Task: structure prediction
Amino acid sequence: MKEKESMDYKDIKISRPTVYVVQEIAGTREGRPKFNIMGAAEYGKLKFLLDERSQMIFSPGPLIFKLKNLLKDFKPTDHLLLTGDPAIIGVVCSLVSDITNGRYNLLKWDRQEKRYYPIEIDLYGTGAKNDD
Result:
């Protein structure tokens, strides 16, 4: 008989969700960001996709390739924080939708409550929970 293998719980890595921030906040490069997004860290580790100067120019191909690579590990428990250039935000949402079959989470700032709230997007109305 084989001896039963034991598992050491300290070896188990619990992955914390990620908050994908589309672009750095304007003013970040000078050390004076226009606004504070640290409240979004309540929903996961912040990961900035692009710096504040990134733009979608006439040939979006290289930027789309870069974003695909940066978003390849996006999981249904992760969130998007939509900051920056609206064209880039549109591409990021499209790419994430492809990865998650139309189901993903956004963080929405509530000015009155001064905090972020998660919004579940389900483009195809499947009603399935984001627990894949």
Q: What stands out?
A: The chain is about 20% helix and 25% strand. The chain has a mean pLDDT of 86. The longest strand covers residues 103-110. Residues 18-122 form one domain.
